[in-house]
């Protein structure tokens, strides 16, 4: 047990060295060329995103590849995918905090940032998807002259509340964790302007015992609040599908299936970000191979739940004898998007098994590649669920499919651009690793040594 | 020495001819011309000071301002000369907001009319219904009449007279006309030629007669791309006089259709469809059901509904008729070399015919050569069907006074004998057969005038063009397939200047158009020969009010077969190689309706193609050519070649036949109709206008995306469109899998406290798959057309679609299934809508609140029937101009026009229910059955849709629902639809070896 704890940090780190190195990333380090390259590229993509959104709002959702019967297209795929990515952060920070997993410390900060950005982007897609987004407030239970409330039986209303609650709690949780570090930055800032800005953001943190006591209490409470949300938000999103009568949507396995899928793709994204971050800012002492090993194990376990869900879907379709369920599966396996289905299976059920090997789990390049491949396959999985189900449902005469347009691509790639754009800003202006928690870890380490 | 007035006139004409820079030059020249200035001074001395004064700055500005103001004033037309009625005196019966209905008649193509009722809102015609009192309609209507209001308000209709494309006033046309009139009047009409479509109008017939007696040398030619000449010729050969047969399907127990599409292509098809459907309605298992044998040379609706179908080459039909005649003992001619399948089909048919003498009917297609018609007449005669299921009348569209068709005209033009050619309501430059160099000959005619609704191909090739008047704008008269006459009355004042067909004849004869109503009244005054003026007025008004002239049906001819009829029977050998069938198109007919977005987007029966035609080929031929749908092939026939995309038909399509619909490939149809599809006229020859033999086809480079709305016709073992055998039905089988169409449910029954419970039932046994319901719904409910690109994406907006489902062991039988909203009692769309835009009303309607809809589309995702339609883009042109958006004038004011981002679907025509409800409340009674008929049910030719209140047990819908054929679509989902179905029936003759051997 103790050996494990030790390996979370490189030995030899002190309070000062950790504080110096992490705060320097924000305060003193010159802007690196790799960062600029990333920043400019992602900013350009974010502009594409802005353009695509503007066009869709101004001209109509018809710009995207959707029709009858496939009335839900890429925006819905993106919602599910992005909200999935937004899962890992809260899991790491909240659930692992409650489970007292020390390895969360080095990665929780940027994982939380990732969560907020991903959930925010996910939250935008339902509006892009709406036919008349300017009336989105009809979803709110506000008092009106028609005395009309939303349809509480509709999962889309649950969705609205689930996503907004999730984003709100995630932001609170993240910001609260940032406060002591913002104070550190304030104290170390060299210019008046940075002092003022970080000072304002630190909300008067002085590091007194009373502050710390309240901090710890609230942090724990928020963790407790966030924990059920990790499970609930994606469960509710899965209900968008599960409560319908569409073969391929209508399935009771969906909530755990979606949560597991979310964890899988969320951890993929954490690894995708951690690897270049660690390399570029020399964070090897804080993000060690041990971290990657553990994250890979989480991926593997979540992935096994996903595979189980695939199996259950197959079994139910066969066992129910329902021609429509069977037809749905035949369509997935042999229909117009069969290639995607088989890629999904090959990667998520096949390639994922490589993670059983310790050699793979500890090899950074392999893990990085695997994370990207699996995350892509997870996007494809959502595509297969959302799009191929209504393609060929009950009445063959109404069957039809649709192919994506430039706007679909612009929105997907653009949202990735926006995500990395925000991550770049975060890396440059806020500490990517929680300084005070690393200090705590060093303290524990020293206590153990002594 | 010309007079001053003549000098000025000469200059005026010169200026009128000049354009652009030449016009400015001419003006300058005029200003410097002393002779002209002198003449002007003489004629208009009061203007002299204007040009003699030096023009200073102030004067110049005055003149500039004045000319600006005057040009504005010149844009206003004069008030019409007729008396204007101030609106303070309300037209009788007009209540703002309450539509008025007028009876008139429309004809498909040119001649065969059916009566319609035109609904006008504050003077705007917005919807057409069939006229129940008209024998050719019986309340039903066809797609073309449904699209007529859109055609009337088409912004691309020709709006002004033109000369070589430049706009001229109608008085300029009259002046030019006066000049040429002088020339032909002096020569008894020599050089004058009038070309019209075939016409059944008594007025026009009278006028042509008058024209010919006034100007004996004048020529009248008839050009109708889709005509019935071989029918009339066949009767002439068989009976010694031209005649047309009309059929009575209600009395025919056995029908043998030899390549005859009486449900769709034949005049009288609406009434035939109704009679045919009625003869096999069979709600009760003891009801009688007719049996249909159909041989088809292309995919037809009759073939799809047949109990016994045979796919053959068109040239084999003669052989079939001969063999049938032999089997029935009509003729005696030894052996027959038919293959086994044909022989079996023929023996079954012959045995059935034999057993039902006098209650049977044999008919063949209009396009079949006259010899086949002769044989069919002989068979009917032998079976004693004449006077029972078939009777002969004089040809409705009498062309006996004409000097021939386009071929004859071309010959005359080539001889230089045509000085003045009037092309009235025809488009021969487009629709001339490929071997007639009409366009070239036309350019040599000194005076060529075209009158038509559009600036079409012929308008472009003629010196003069005058807008024609729409059938809703003018007076005329027409006759139906059985000779019944209707008086066509205007329902709106003409939108653009122009003259109607009777006025044109008057113009040609007298030099002035006269009053169209007066001309038509003149005809009927002569025909009725009333004793008193009062009698005439009474009859005239009765005819106008009822939409059909009382007792105007043609009398049956009593003729016996000509003694020499056998001489006309031919022993034609089926052609080797491929055959090319030309067909009238279900949406554009011969091309004249090409500029209608509604019609272009209406899925063609069986193929479900929209926006264009394709060469229909068999799957076997497709394999040979290695082509898939949309690949281009080159078709060669009689030295003409055409590249067309292919559409592969199911296995039962005749293997060696290609089919190409006429009416596409227009080059000057308007923004909507131009360059849609390929023109079959380029392959059509005047020698064989309906069939090309020895056709060569080869695959070529190229591919066109073809916009079909139904991509899957197989049901994959799902029990959606159900069909029963008549034997099973008679034995007591039920179409439904559940007792009383109510599966048990875990959920509590929903109690709805409505005064009414609306429901709809659709009889799949009656549905002929024509698709009129779809376009009727479009016209009633302001449904936009979206264009080919959007249809290709799967975004057509029709609220009711007509599926053609392939059933049977080998998928060789077709069951049509119209699918509107099911109005589920437990609607899956309702609980998923987050904003309650999809809700239930107290009368059981599943309503869509457009104002509330935010477009999540969850309702459509959760709809198992996929009947909801979404406004993906601004199809109605709210935000920016849309070329396909229907003009505001044609919109039904009772129905919301939907914005983009809103879901919509069938409402059971809730606006009609509301109107009836209001009326019933005023009169303090319940709504009566006939008061609410949705647009689809009203238009349906075969009465396949019935609508009613489920709480009133005396309504027809209850009788339908009590039938053993009644079932619920996807009942196992527990959605409890209010729209239900009656299963189709197949009445196959039981196989018995005796029949086959004998």
Structure description:
- The complex is a heterodimer of chains A (450) and B (998).
- Chain A is mainly alpha-helical.
- Chain A contains 16 helices and no strands.
- In chain A, 73% of the residues lie in helices and 0% in strands.
- The two termini of chain A are 16 Å apart.
- The N terminus of chain A is likely disordered.
- Chain B is of the alpha/beta class.
- In chain B, 30% of the residues lie in helices and 19% in strands.
- Chain B has 33 helices and 38 strands.
Biggest pleated-sheet summary of chain B: 7 strands, mixed
Largest sheet of chain A: none
Instruction: Quickly count the helices of chain A.
Output: 16
CA radius of gyration of chain B is 31 Å
Shape of chain A: globular
List keywords for this structure.
heterodimer; A: 450 residues; mainly alpha; 16 helices; 73% helix; globular; B: 998 residues; seven-stranded mixed beta sheet; six-stranded mixed beta sheet; 38 strands
Task: Explain the layout of strands and helices.
The complex is a heterodimer of chains A (450) and B (998).
Chain A: H1 2-7, H2 15-27, H3 33-59, H4 74-98, H5 105-129, H6 155-188, H7 192-201, H8 209-242, H9 254-280, H10 289-320, H11 323-334, H12 338-350, H13 358-362, H14 364-391, H15 406-429, H16 435-449
Helix pairs in contact in A: 2-16, 3-15, 4-5, 4-8, 4-9, 4-14, 5-6, 5-9, 5-15, 6-7, 6-8, 8-9, 9-10, 9-14, 10-11, 11-12, 12-14
Chain B: H1 4-17, H2 20-32, H3 34-43, H4 48-52, H5 57-75, E1 100-108, E2 112-121, E3 124-130, H6 143-146, H7 148-152, E4 162-163, E5 166-167, H8 170-185, E6 192-196, H9 202-214, E7 219-222, H10 229-239, E8 244-247, E9 254-258, H11 269-278, E10 291-296, H12 301-305, E11 308-311, H13 317-327, H14 340-355, E12 360-364, H15 370-383, E13 390-393, H16 406-414, E14 420-424, H17 428-431, H18 438-442, E15 447-452, H19 457-461, E16 464-467, E17 476-480, E18 485-488, H20 501-510, H21 516-528, H22 533-546, E19 578-583, H23 597-601, E20 609-610, E21 615-618, H24 619-625, E22 631-637, E23 640-649, E24 657-661, E25 691-703, E26 707-708, E27 723-725, H25 726-730, E28 758-763, H26 772-780, H27 788-792, E29 801-807, E30 813-819, H28 828-832, E31 838-840, E32 846-848, H29 858-861, E33 869-870, E34 903-904, H30 910-922, H31 935-939, E35 945-949, H32 956-961, E36 966-967, E37 979-982, E38 984-986, H33 993-997
Parallel strand pairs in B: 2-17, 6-7, 6-14, 9-10, 9-12, 10-11, 14-15, 15-16, 19-24, 21-23, 27-38, 28-37
Antiparallel strand pairs in B: 1-2, 2-3, 4-5, 4-16, 8-13, 17-18, 19-25, 20-26, 22-23, 22-25, 28-35, 29-30, 31-32, 33-34, 36-37
